[in-house]
Amino acid sequence: MLDRTSVGARSAPHVRAWTSDDALLYSLALGAAPDQLDLVTENSEGVAQRMLPTYAALLAGGSGPLRDRLGGWPAHATVHGAQRVTLPGPLPVGGEVEVVSTVARIADKGSGALLEIEATGTDRATGAEAFSALTSLFLRGQGWGEPERGTQTDPVPDRLPDFVVETPTDRGQALLYRLCGDRNPLHSDPAFAKRAGFEQPILHGLCTWGITARVLLKELGAGGQADPLGRVASYSGRFRAPVVPGDKLTLRVWQTGPDAWAHTTSVGERVVVDRGELVLRPEASG
To answer: Which fold has domain 4-280?
Structure first.
């Protein structure tokens, strides 16, 4: 069972390293193509390779560094509920960070428990903070009879979106994305997926979330925003429903401030990511 007394527990510092090749694989796994050469090549003339900021969620490591403190539960009971990353500056295409994870919250949600893990990554070369991340996991069957009501506000305004964009996913997308580090068989093994209650393997929630970020940043750049990829201050979203590899994603986007956008992602009429929010750092003056 989940150990509810583990709130506040901290992991020992652990090192996470990544390379230019990891950055390329991650971008390809999120569907980046030749129209985003800075994401998918490292040696194109006049094009510097860049890293998508959502990779910080992978570096954060979820609950893994704290599993010996959290207790136990069936592997198929874990569902990624939400994710947020905050960055003081662009994430480099390669490096090493020292990550410390903390159990931030455990809450009863009736049919399961909400587990929130905060992680901070510090650049080993400079000593500066590289990112912070909040990972929310829903653990089915781990509630204890004292459900809490949600209090989070929705950044999506009550009006039509400012723009809508569609993007495909590939039938093999989960098989490629798993090579970025998440080998959960829920995304590759039909038998495991059926035991978990799904008709077939589903796409990683972080993959859908990352695709949404990649497409949104591309659209903002095309719409006149100056270097949105290099200005990401925070990005978040809540996972509402599974995506099957091959589904078409529809992004609906609302500008809510000079440097802020709310967004949802849907498959048809079914919302799969909601409460999405992207905040950019202000443009440098001069």
So the answer is: Thiol Ester Dehydrase; Chain A (3.10.129)
